[in-house]
Amino acid sequence: MTVNVEALINSLGKSYQYMLDKDLIPYKTAPKGSSGTPTINLEMAQEGIFLSFWREGRILKSVTLRIQHEPASSWTFPNELPAPLQASMSRKWV
After folding, report:
1. Which of 10, 31, 35, 37 has the greatest CB tally within 10 Å of its CB?
2. SS3 for 16?
3. How confident is residue 82, by pLDDT bands cut at 50, 70 and 90?
C-alpha cells in the first residue's frame, strides 16, 4: 500500500480519528501501548512508517520513516518522499 508521507507529516498535532477520516492510514488497527505510558504507537512495517500518538486524545506526536531495513538488503522504501528527502541517501548527502 502506498502512504502519503507528506500528508502524514502535515498531520502532526491532528487526531488519529482525523487521519482515519482522511484515509491517511491504510490500517484500521488502533495504536497501542503499554498501560500507564503517555504515548501509543502504530507500526506500519510494510510501509516503513512508525507513528507515535499522545495517549490522551490520540494526537499524532511523531512520524518515523525507516528508509533502510538492515535485515533485508533488497528492501526499498515503498512510498514517495517529500523534498528534500530521497529513497537513497548516503552519509555524505545527509
Report:
1. 31
2. helix
3. confident
Q: Cis (ω within 30 of 0) for the bond into 84?
A: yes
Q: Each residue of 32-78: pLDDT tens digit?
A: 999 999 999 999 988 889 999 999 999 999 999 887 666 666 667 77
The alpha carbon of 48 is separated from its chain's Cα centroid by a whole number of angstroms, namely 7
All three cell numbers of 45: 512495517
* Residue extents of the structural domains in the chain: 5-65
Output phi, psi for 42, to 5 deg.
-135, 115
Q: Is 55 left (phi over 0), alpha (psi -120 to 50) or beta?
A: alpha
